[in-house]
Design a protein that fits this description.
globular, seven-stranded mixed β-sheet, two-stranded antiparallel sheet, 11% strand, alpha/beta, 408 residues
Length: 408
């Protein structure tokens, strides 16, 4: 079920046995997703080699391995954003985090890793929305609980090394007043029928769910950040996101011209797979997940016990037939976290030919994950409450070349 533009669209896909219907919504991802079909049904555009080469040419930097490997695979108006960037016009980045667990897991890192690369590469401001309100509406959590989770998640985000001079992290409960005029305009431009058609809400759902899409849409418009941008000069926005968040911003792009705003550009990632090989995306509430607080032993145990293998049923079978890299979770995770292309390609080739065993691949993955998690833990220990206060403070953002700063 793909919730989009005033109706529910079903993607029917056949696999071994009976056909299954994948479900892709902003809250649930289930089934074996066909990304090419998703591009067609969502009406977005694939990121091709030409677009990647153009990014490299404009920035003078090699494309992130998420782009090179097709992990970020589709977009809306990315080519237009690059046109404006080439002409010296500014843009800003917008991403977010819904705090549903005290510790983020490795899957949560993917959009933030890519966003950091975009910020460092293009040297642009970044706003990060912390949606405590969303989790209060959609989860069985109290306001006090989501606020505590938000504080911990903000520390995780800061520990990733975002530029403190050009990054503004805002919590909806604290900042919504500044955005409220824009939110009200968005809400008036939408009908209940459109919201239900786009998100599949039911009449028995709480009213907060129905109004939240406008709150997530608002940061797409630079007018919501008068301490960063001149409200009289609109600035283009680029939103890195997983493809399941696209309905929010399809709706946003539909209403933007009616409100006199620029449509945000979008760049979509594929889903980070669960350890068990279950179709969909990794979730901290379903099956095992590798958290940023895990010890080396915990990571080792989770990978060895729970990571789905595409290897042969026996050693003899594996040596003879090799492994299936398309379904092997350790191989898939290495595609996300092993940066060196040559090393990854060698591992995949040797595994497919049966030259290395499942245990060898898992051992490599464990080493990479622990190095990444340990580095994060060490960085997070250095994040103080004062750092959180600074990143979330309403303050002027350091002027950047061609930035439309307040009052300019």
């Amino acid at each position: 079920v793909l919730y989009c533009s005033n109706n529910k669209q079903h993607i029917e896909m056949s696999g071994e046995g009976k056909a299954e219907t994948p479900q892709v919504t902003p809250w649930d991802v289930e089934g074996d997703v066909d990304y090419d079909k998703l591009i067609r049904d969502f009406g977005c555009h694939p990121i091709d080699e030409g677009l990647i080469q153009r990014m490299e040419s404009l920035t003078g930097k090699r494309a992130h391995h998420f782009l090179r490997r097709g992990i970020f695979f589709s977009h809306r108006d990315l080519h237009l954003l690059l046109d404006l960037y080439e002409k010296g016009q500014p843009f800003y980045l917008y991403t977010g985090r819904g705090p549903s667990s005290e510790s983020m897991h490795t899957g949560h890192l993917v959009p933030f890793m890519f966003t950091k690369w975009l910020q460092d590469t293009f040297q642009v401001p970044l706003v990060i929305q912390i949606t405590e309100d969303e989790k209060f509406y959609f989860k069985d959590l109290t306001i006090e609980e989501v606020e505590k989770l938000a504080f911990e998640n903000i520390k995780d985000i800061i520990a990733m090394g975002f530029n403190r001079d050009t990054t503004f992290i805002f919590r909806d409960f604290e900042y919504v007043g500044t955005m409220y005029r824009t939110i009200a305009r968005i809400e008036k431009a939408m009908t209940a029928s459109q919201v239900r058609g786009c998100f599949g809400f039911k009449m028995e759902d709480n009213v907060g769910k129905w109004m939240f899409p406008a709150i997530q849409a608002a940061p797409s418009f630079s007018v919501c950040f008068p301490h960063i941008f001149n409200p009289k000069k609109q600035v283009f926005c680029l939103i890195p996101q997983a493809i399941d968040q696209d309905p929010y911003f399809r709706m946003t792009r539909d209403i933007a011209p009616r409100l006199g705003f620029l449509k945000p550009a979008l760049i979509h990632s594929k889903f980070f797979p669960g350890l068990s090989g279950s179709k969909g995306k990794m979730s901290s509430s379903v099956g095992a997940a590798v958290f940023l607080t895990d010890s080396e032993k915990q990571i080792k145990d989770k990978i060895n016990k729970h990571a789905f293998s595409g290897g042969g049923a026996t050693k003899e079978e594996h040596l003879s037939l090799g492994g299936n890299t398309e379904v092997d979770v350790p191989i898939q995770w290495l595609s996300f976290f092993l940066e060196d292309d040559d090393t990854l390609n060698t591992i995949k080739k040797d595994y497919a030919l049966g030259r290395i065993m499942t245990g060898d691949v898992k051992k490599t993955l464990i080493t990479i994950l622990w190095s990444m998690v340990k580095t994060h833990q060490e960085a997070r220990k250095k994040v103080t409450d004062e750092d959180v206060k600074f990143f979330t403070s309403v303050r002027p953002i350091q002027a950047l070349p061609n930035a439309a700063a307040p009052g300019s």
